[in-house]
């Protein structure tokens, strides 16, 4: 019996909505789900590990990945660092039949929609704008200028919700992760 190729689930949403936290909960509680690790040119935040949270690469390394078509998608995010999804690990995970997920920004999700239209696109939404602002300020990882830039981007990202197949409201991390896992573990024909 041959393995059936799995369907890719793409999780996106505005900055500080908790995409990384929800993905970490999925990773911890459902190790059978494969979650892509993005490459980025930004420096690590406190506690982030290379190869676990992101692949932290130089601008030159990122340029090489683009030139060699080794990225499924990539974008400049918040007018500063570049982020991208290495192509080969995604293709290998899908071919293996494992539930597979990308946790990426809106620009990346739009690129993946063009190249992989059969993927399921999930929008992670905050319970309210005020809660999103509270989460961004509360994490304390950005300067005031960077927070303002991210909030401008977040308004644009929230306006794109209708581009997605499914919306999950992130009231509570484990509940949102549970909804996401339920989507990941359905076969493409179930949805």
N/C terminus separation: 23 Å
Shape: globular
Instruction: Give the % helix.
Output: 40-55%
Residue-averaged pLDDT:
90
Main beta sheet: strand number and arrangement?
5 strands, parallel
CATH architecture: 3-Layer(aba) Sandwich
The helix-and-strand class reads alpha/beta
Give the SSE string. Answer: EHEEEHEEHEHEHHEH
Number of helices: 7
* Poorly predicted spans: none
Strand percentage lies at: 15-25%
Number of strands: 9
Looking at CATH, the homologous superfamily is P-loop containing nucleotide triphosphate hydrolases
Description of the structure:
- With 191 residues, the chain is α/β, with parallel strands linked by helices.
- The protein has a single domain (8-186), classed as Rossmann fold (3-Layer(aba) Sandwich), CATH 3.40.50.
- 41% of the residues lie in helices and 20% in strands.
- The chain is built from seven helices and nine strands.
- The protein has helices at residues 19-29, 59-67, 87-96, 106-115, 129-139, 144-158, 173-185; strands spanning 8-12, 34-35, 39-40, 55-56, 71-77, 81-86, 100-103, 120-125, 166-169.
- The chain has a five-stranded parallel beta sheet, with helices on both faces. A four-stranded mixed beta sheet has the order 4-3-6-5.
- Helix 1 packs across helix 7 (173-185).
- The mean pLDDT is 90.
